[in-house]
Amino acid sequence: MVIDWLPSVLIVVLLALGVIGALRRVSLWRAGQPEKVNLIAGLLAMPGRYLKDLHHVVERDKYMSRTHVATGGGFVLSMVLVLVVHVFDVNEQIVAWALLGALLIMLTGAFFVFKRRLNPPARLSKGPWMRLPKTLMIYALTFIVLTLPAAGILPEGAGGVVLTAVLSVGVVIGLGELLFGMGWGGPMKHAFAGALHLAFHRRPERFGGGRSTGLKPVNLEGDVLGVAKPSDFKWNQLLGFDACVQCGKCQAMCPAFAAGQPLNPKKLIQDMVVGLAGGTDANYAGSPYPGKEVGNAKGGPDEIITAGLVSQETLWSCTTCRACVEECPMMIEHVDAIVDMRRFLTMEKGETPNKGSEVLENIIATDNPNGYAPSSRTNWAADQNLAVMKEKQEADVLFWVSDGAFDMRSQRILRAFVKLMKHANVDVAILGDEERDSGDVARRLGDDATFQSLAKRNLATLGQYKFKKIVTTDPHAYHCLRNEYGDFDTDGALAGVEVLHHTTFLNQLVQSGALKLDAFKGGKVTYHDPCYLGRYNGEYEAPRELLRSLGIEVAEMERSGFRSRCCGGGGGAPITDIPGERRIADMRMEDASETGAELVAVGCQQCTAMLEGVVEPRPEVKDISEILVDQLVEEVH
Amino acid sequence: MPHKVVSLISVGRHPQSGRSRRAEQDSRAVELGLKLAGTDLDVVHAGNTEEPTLRQYAGMGLPSVTVLEQDEKADAVESLQSYLQSEKVDIVLTGVRAESGESSGMTPYLLAESLGWPMVSRVADIVEVKDGEAQVLLALPRGQRRQVTVKLPFIASIDNAAQAARQSAFGPGLRAKMEAQQGSESVDEIRLNWEEVPAKARPKRLKVVKAKTAADRFKAATAKPQGGSGKVMKNESVEEKAKAIFDLLVEEKVIR
Ligand code: SF4
Ligand code: SF4
After folding, report:
1. Which value does ipTM take for this structure?
2. How distant, in Å, are the alpha carbons of A502, A546, A565 from that of A541?
3. Whose CB has fewer CB within 10 Å in chain A, the N or C terminal residue?
4. Which CATH number fits domain B5-192: 3.55.50.30, 3.40.50.620, 1.10.3120.10, 3.40.640.10?
5. Which residues of A touch B14 (CB under 8 A)?
6. A352 CB within 8 Å of a chain B CB
7. Does B16 contact A365 at a Cβ distance shorter than 8 Å?
């Protein structure tokens, strides 16, 4: 018959076009900065990462994970078999049957995608994404019919020219979406970019259940500090942006978005895609940055991002809470990108908004954000009879006090913790006036130069003394010491040292019987997971176990554990103070009030300050160490 | 014709930590200089090229800093004077006083004297420079301003009321060029014999407010001093003026 060959030719043509598009896409990523990855090992690890790590996240939504396995798996299998049957003309009925099976699985999957899209949740993008399930179904149906003769169900040439023509249109639509669209930036791009993103992820430690949350250091000798243009990102960061499926899970979790501040992590990633490919955001079909219209953003790989693509307020609205990263099925690293761009604004432009510049200047001149005399750092402990390392030289535990030392509210937490340690006879010492700001705020505000300087000086101090553990009540300092100082610890000041949050340490003391506690008799208690303790360090259990040991049954908030909502205090957000419609802290307090709790237990001085800043009536806010200290069993001798 | 503006900078000292930093007023002088001359501003320091605080000034967006290299023991005035004389300068901006060293506040006066230029002290802003004249706003207590017209060239010391300095950015600061020139070599002999000790806090004079109501107290706290005993002496002879000052110093027990 005359046009029998048409479908096969179309398959080959579309495949070729798809490959050309894909190569062009690869060249867009390569405009980024070099970053070493292990090509072979990455590619080999990719299927495992997809099946285990990515699906571990997608699994949180069972409906979607099954649908995706069916659709994606069905597609990959069927595509291979399509080539075998329809291009290489292998005439084995069994292969044709296998192809039919694969296509049916995919059709079923695509149908469920279609069903979800009938009434899609607000977080999902519309536009071409609405078309996707239909084109997927067209692909599956077309090839099912095309394969029937090979499977021996229909005679060869059944249906005549008309059917062949119809099927050819189906091939064009189906494969146009799947192959051509994959290479040329259609929704299916996610499969191709996503697979490579998994293979060449910048934080491979995250796979296999690992955690990698420390920011990467800036090379201070570089020509540009931080990211000014999309091409200043590492190439595999650009690749990562391209993997976004616009599912909006990040947007649904983002506290800044919920507060009506001009940030939407999904839109941000899409703007990065606009930047790397060049163009405008006119085709973006998802939720905007609150208060900002879609369609005005323009960018290109070599154009300054903050000059037309993304506004500065968007970048400064982020609390670096990592809720988006935790939720992203494609394992995209929003916080890295945001801080990279902040680095440019702070270290190259000197445009840290509001109090930012003042705070940074204070940190540089006094090693604390409020510009207090460094010699007054230990004033809070005047009556605490605490050993100082300078005199003691050696102790089991080094208590890292953090800048809470200057704040009267935080001092109550510090004193409570000291009292608990004394009760348990812990051999403890502090650095006293030798301690400096950990650099957390400076780093999140983009001033990596100051962070690095603080890290190095703190490490030099730490290196003079002997201790087995560092314990701190401040999750931010905890994160820096545990996850970020390692990059600068050339002399091994922290080698073999265990860095612990005070809740972890106190829990060890309670479990080992070193601390005796009475049962708690107050009302209902809920627990707020600090971002830098939970998502950044994976400590969800110790605080809860401590509360349980007081006989408290934690009334969990709807968003708790890895889904905990930020208090609004991270990432220097209270300093840059970008206006929104609501305050993040108020929303978090509402979460707490909804549980009916009378007391919110927290494990962070910053969270304490933010939540206590909410107007009354509201539940009381206490650090876990303050709750414990009230239940101490005083031993009478 | 663009005017040549020079801002003089020194190494500041943080009041709490005692650590070196860009000085408050000097960095305001740079800020004002940037407003007047943009990046054509010439920022000059007499001292050491390696001084890290210079990079904090440079981080305000200065492509380069001119350093008149000289020893710590040398007097800055001599180097600055010969530099200013050799360049065709229209406006020189300094702080009111340095935060380190002698901190006498004399530098602008000594420079003005040796160059024979007018010296305007405690400037809040320079509004306009035109036809060889500048409209200058002087800072008076309680946020008041006085506008004066000054002929170019002149020296101005910048008050804390001037526009605060912009943020210093690390990258540009690091990359700025330090353009070294030979400064003066003569040692400041007088200074050598001085001994520096930490200052004692001066006792504060108590203000007796006889107000009875809150409104009165508020008025007392905010009203500008009526200065009942003070007077403006304009037409008297120099001797009479000096006598008045002398009498006041005796009355205040500054000299006995
Ligand atoms: S960044 Fe991740 S979570 Fe956000 S829309 Fe894209 S894929 Fe979804
Ligand atoms: S880190 Fe938190 S605040 Fe920042 S974009 Fe992600 S979810 Fe939003």
Report:
1. 0.89
2. 13, 9, 17
3. C
4. 3.40.50.620
5. 365-366, 371
6. yes
7. yes
